[in-house]
Design goal:
The protein is mainly β and about 110 residues long. It has one domain: OB fold (Dihydrolipoamide Acetyltransferase, E2P) (Beta Barrel), CATH 2.40.50.140. It is about 10% helix and about 60% strand. The chain contains 1 helix and 6 strands, in the order ββββαββ. A 5-stranded mixed barrel has the order 1-3-4-6-5. β5 and β6 form a beta hairpin. The longest helix is centred in the middle third of the chain and has 10 residues. It starts with 7 loop residues before the first strand and ends with a strand.
């Protein structure tokens, strides 16, 4: 059961071209978001699509794979863990971010 702790799996479409950063050490970081859709019918029988956006970060070889093969709009599967962090913006307001730290990516679609 330990392998199930803090494990996230998502399939969705990449929102924008991934932002690729190269650290001083040479290690790469990829930042991007993916959209997941859920479709259901409301009480009137109307089809409703609910889209959720997820922030994703990937490091090292996974980031390199994303840099080379994942454009905007590409359908992918990601697996990783959920993390949360906070920071203060330039006005001193505390901001919170939740993101998926991706350790595996699966290229889907065409």
């Amino acid at each position: 059961m330990n392998t199930l702790r803090n494990k996230v799996q998502l399939i969705g479409h990449v929102g924008n071209a991934p932002e690729i950063l190269t650290m001083e050490s040479g290690k790469k970081l990829a930042k991007f978001s993916i959209a997941t859709n859920e479709t259901y019918k409301n009480n009137k029988g109307e089809k409703i699509t609910d889209t959720q956006w997820h922030n994703v970060v990937a490091w090292g070889k996974t980031a390199e794979l994303i840099e080379n093969y994942v454009p905007k709009g590409k359908e992918i599967g990601v697996e990783g863990k959920l993390t949360s962090r906070s920071y203060e913006d330039k006005d001193g307001v505390k901001k919170y971010i939740t993101e998926v730290v991706c350790n595996e990516v699966l290229l889907l679609g065409k």
